[in-house]
Amino acid sequence: MGCKGKDRDNNCVCEAVEQILAEQEAVEEISCPTSCFSNLLSPAASPGRDTIPFILYDKKGDLFKAFGNVGGFLGDMACFKTIFFRVEHVKDCCATLSLLRPFDVNGDTESVCDPCDGDFFGLAKSDFCIEVDLDCFCAIQCLSPDLVNRAMDKKHCK
Questions:
Q1: Are 68 and 79 in contact (CB under 8 A)?
Q2: How far is residue 28 from each of residues 12, 20, 119, 156, measured CA to CA in Å?
Q3: Which residues contact 158 (CB under 8 A, 6 or more apart)?
Q4: Residues with Cβ < 8 Å from 40, sequence gap 6 or more?
Q5: What's the predicted TM-score (pTM) here?
Q6: What is the per-residue pLDDT for 28?
């Protein structure tokens, strides 16, 4: 059940996630450049982008978080906690979200529970997914696609 009760026909989080998925699948021009309903993947902004990262808020206003690589079984990557997601699939307001791995300026995996964490620098796609009922969330905030695979600006490395 979402914030508005059981009315699945009126869930703005579900609508926003469906719009994000549509934009990831087919880049097209949309007139409003500042919301989850805008074309954040516009080729004019930066070609080759395919991910709109976002964060979700629960009914209490807390950030939703998930864990990736629990047990540390995948390569050299440590277990991590993230609040950053990429939509992979949506059906009937249920979504498969992939976890975006937060990293610091050196590329090391960070566990991030606050988007303003001083060590947080960028995001990398991961193969870890979670299934969610979008009715359980009351707010969504889209983030810049430039956070994904962000590289350190060489002029800052002296």
A1: yes
A2: 21, 12, 34, 34
A3: none
A4: 23, 33, 52, 142, 144, 145
A5: 0.79
A6: 45
Give pLDDT < 50 ranges for the chain.
Answer: 1-2, 28-34, 44, 154-158
Distance CA 99, CA 129 (A): 6
CB within 8 Å of 143: residues ≥ 6 apart: 52, 53, 54, 55, 84, 115
pLDDT in tens, 28-50: 444 444 456 666 666 545 556 78
Count of CB atoms within 10 A of residue 4's CB?
13
CB atoms within 10 A of CB 75: 7
Q: Which residues of 25-61 are buried (b: 16+ CB within 10 A; e: fewer)?
A: eebeeeeeeeebebbbbbeeeeeebebbbbbbbeeee
Report how far residue 34's alpha carbon sits from residue 55's, in angstroms, rounded to the nearest whole number: 15
